[in-house]
Design brief:
Elements (H helix, E strand, L loop, with lengths): L2 E7 L5 H9 L16 E7 L2 E7 L11 H12 L4 E7 L3 H14 L4 E5 L1 H7 L2 E2 L1 H8 L3 E3 L5 H13 L12 H10 L11 H8 L3 H6 L5 H9 L2 H20 E2 L13 H4 L5 H17 L1 H29 L3 H19 L2 H17 L1 H8 L1 H6 L6 H7 L4 H6 L7 H10 L9 H11 L4 H25 L21 H35 L12 H9 L11 H10 L5 H9 L8 H7 L11 H13 L4 H11 L1 H32 L1 H25 L20
Parallel strand pairs: 1-3, 1-4, 4-5, 5-7
Antiparallel strand pairs: 2-3, 6-8
Helix pairs in contact: 1-6, 3-11, 7-8, 7-11, 13-14, 13-16, 13-23, 14-15, 14-16, 15-24, 15-27, 16-24, 17-19, 22-28, 22-29, 23-29, 24-27, 25-26, 26-27, 29-31, 30-31, 31-32
Length: 708
């Protein structure tokens, strides 16, 4: 049996970085809360010995308040014979040591690793590891988790170290045991360990249920004695003494990166404008001339250097029309239409990972916490929604980090509204055809629309069927750091590799299936009569006629997009006959031709973009939602999302038609008039429609609707 080594620590302490360095894995690493959602295992050989390193979700305590902490608690309890490596953030030692003490109380002997050694050195902070080792009775190392050799040496050390039967007695444990004994709690004839007694004093639900103490009498006794506060103070005083003896901080501390920037980044007035400007720069880099030129260059390279010569060779030697059309359109056309957008996808991830690694993402959660509470979300929901920019399926997984069940369901339902990276090619193709001069602006507005719609939907859900109680939002802000180029490149490479795997397997396979459906009828006859895809799409097409794109071609792309959003562009290429050595400009221009199977007008293009943004998520996201929130809620979420997408697309089509008929200026004036009327109605209602209550109302002044 392989030796199992557990990797335990607070969120954002560097566990995943250590895991990757020690095992040469490629797991995502980020400078924000909740990167590791579930535990990760990696089997590897070290010095000729087979080991298994397990990266557990970040936890502040073994008394869980979230799903992540529950996973860590359960795994530690079930693997008490395993070696433990405890990663500590060197910038927050006092907070991180709480978990360390709990591991020691349990009887484990963790190998203690104080991370961020390079930052501590720059900050002028020195740690006496020898003294700390003597106090805790366990090995202590000062490390940089990015150092592979150092991490592997520590794993080797942990493998050889003791696991259980820790003999070091923490001085405060005797006080806690004495406190427990003084309560005279009746737990029958069961024998409790010191750790179990401490957990009962902490009012740990797991331990109370285990010993049948989850009753009001026991809870009242614990509350009357204020045991939770007592345990906290005992640990705090011990940690305070450790800090005094072992850590020396210089008075003049350096501020890394943009530490003073927090005065503005966390300000309720400046946070939103700053965030908007930063994201605007990311979009400008991605969709501006730089990103577009890179995509065009890659497309030209594929066409001129690879596909065109192969297509000519096939045309000269292959006489079978079916085979020739299949290879040039289904295979080559799909590849060029998908791969050509890779530069823009890379640039989008580059911007997001720079913001993440710098520590700015966590500031966003704090800055928008109060606002999100008003729409029924937690500050932690920001992480999930921001991750949706990359992939909705991955983002949905992180919703399990939320403590409140209703907030978790709502957040999982909202992730598909936020535009993911897979939709970038759709925006680029359609905007390139109809809005070439205002391409960046239109795409930015689409992203903003997705966020706004998600918040509105959350508000209505919170007011109706998914009411969320207020929860305390507790999370430490990571230090601002200059982004690590190595880490960013590695994370981008992980996403690029996943993209190619999708293109090379699922997406390419489905593109071939779509080509067969487009070119064969139900008798499987090539090029004879209406195709299967056209027949199916014509049946559904009338449903989308009010949205302006009720043709079979448009519906075909949307139906195929349910499998994966990336397929939409390849489907456009296939049904419009833009395969082979076609470039991105050809695919965009095909949307303008009324002779194409899929064509749009300027008004219908707006409606199509909005619908593509908001309609039901891809198959992988749906499968994750089923796993996280259940079949019923997933079905409800998809139904609501389709209706919302349909309604907003209908409005967008009518508004776009108005702009086309009466001009841009008239359209803008009309919108401002409409908004002014709505604002006036709200103000009048506030002034003249106040609810009045009888003076005998039991709520009286405590009621939110109380009027004098």
């Amino acid at each position: 049996m392989d030796k199992v080594i557990l990797l335990v620590g607070n969120p954002n302490s560097g566990k995943s970085t250590f895991f990757n360095s020690a095992t040469k894995a490629e797991e995502h690493v980020g400078n924000w809360h909740g990167v590791t959602v579930d535990y990760k295992e990696k089997m590897f050989k070290l010095n000729g010995k087979q080991l298994t390193l397990t990266d557990l979700p970040g936890a502040y305590s073994l008394s869980p308040y979230s799903f992540e902490e529950a996973v860590t608690r359960d795994y530690v309890y079930s693997h008490q014979n395993s070696s433990v490596i405890n990663i500590i953030d060197g910038n927050n030692i006092s907070r991180n040591l709480v978990l360390t003490l709990q591991l020691l109380e349990l009887g484990l002997k963790p190998t203690l690793c104080i991370n961020m050694a390079n930052e501590l050195k720059k900050d002028g902070t020195t740690i006496n590891c020898g003294k700390l080792q003597n106090i805790l009775g366990t090995k202590v190392f000062l490390i940089n988790a990015q150092n592979k050799k150092q991490c592997q040496e520590i794993v080797n050390c942990a493998d050889k170290s003791e696991t259980v039967s820790h003999n070091q007695t923490l001085p405060y444990i005797a006080n806690l045991v004495k406190k427990f004994d003084s309560l005279n709690i009746d737990f029958g004839h069961k024998t409790l360990t010191n750790y179990q007694k401490i957990k009962i004093l902490e009012q740990d639900e797991y331990m109370l249920q285990k010993f049948d103490l989850d009753n009001q009498k026991t809870k009242d006794a614990l509350n009357d004695a204020d045991t939770l506060q007592y345990v906290f103070l005992q640990r705090f005083e011990f940690i305070k003494d450790i800090i005094r003896q072992c850590i020396n901080k210089q008075n003049s501390q350096k501020i890394y990166g943009f530490g003073k920037f927090d005065k503005f980044a966390l300000n309720k007035f400046f946070a939103l404008p700053i965030f908007a400007v930063i994201m605007g720069l990311v979009f400008a880099l991605t969709f501006g001339s730089f990103g577009s030129k890179l995509s065009q260059l890659l497309s030209a390279f594929f066409n001129d250097c690879l596909l065109s010569p192969i297509c000519k060779l096939l045309q000269n030697n292959v006489k079978n029309a079916f085979v020739l059309n299949f290879v040039t359109n289904a295979l080559f056309g799909s590849i060029v239409s998908l791969v050509s957008f890779l530069p823009q996808i890379i640039l989008m991830f580059l911007g997001l990972y720079v913001l993440e690694d710098s520590g700015y993402m966590s500031r966003i959660a704090f800055a928008f916490e109060d606002f999100l509470k008003k729409v029924g979300l937690s500050g932690k929901s920001v992480f999930t929604l921001l991750m949706s920019f990359g992939c909705s399926a991955t983002a949905t997984l992180t919703s399990r980090n939320l403590e409140n069940k209703n907030s978790k369901i709502k957040t999982a339902m909202l992730t598909p509204y936020v535009s993911c990276s897979a939709k970038l090619p759709i925006y680029s193709i359609v905007c390139g055809a109809f809005f070439p001069r205002h391409k960046i602006l239109v795409i930015v507005l689409l992203y903003l629309l997705g966020i706004v719609v998600s918040l509105i939907v959350s508000y209505f859900l919170n007011k109706t069927i998914l009411k969320s109680s207020d929860t305390n939002f507790v999370m430490e802000l990571p230090k601002y750091r200059f982004p690590s180029i190595k880490k960013i490149v590695k994370n981008i490479w992980i996403n690029v590799k996943q993209f190619f795997l999708r293109v090379g397997t699922v997406l390419l396979s489905f593109s071939c299936i779509i080509w067969l459906l487009q070119n064969c009828n139900f008798r499987l006859e090539y090029g004879a009569g209406d195709s299967m895809l056209k027949s199916i799409s014509q049946f559904v097409a009338p449903l989308f006629a009010p949205l302006g794109f009720g043709n079979a071609g448009a519906v075909s792309t949307l139906l195929c997009g349910f499998v994966a959003k990336e397929i939409i562009v390849s489907t456009i290429s296939i049904i419009n006959g833009c395969g082979g050595a076609s470039n991105l400009v050809d695919i965009s221009n095909s949307l303008l031709l009324s002779t194409s199977a899929f064509y749009l007008t300027k008004s219908s293009s707006v409606s199509f973009l909005v619908f593509a943004l908001l309609y039901i998520p891809c198959l992988s996201t749906v499968s994750v939602m089923v796993k996280e929130i259940g079949k019923k809620w997933t079905l409800f979420a998809c139904a609501i999302q389709f209706l919302v997408a349909y309604a907003i697309s209908f409005v967008a089509f009518k508004v776009a038609n108005y702009f086309v008929l009466y001009g841009t200026l008239a359209g803008i004036i009309s919108i401002f008039v409409f908004l002014f009327i709505c604002a006036s109605i709200v103000v009048v209602k506030k002034i003249f429609c106040k609810k009045k209550f009888c003076k005998f109302c039991p709520k009286n002044k405590n009621c939110k609707n109380y009027t004098k």
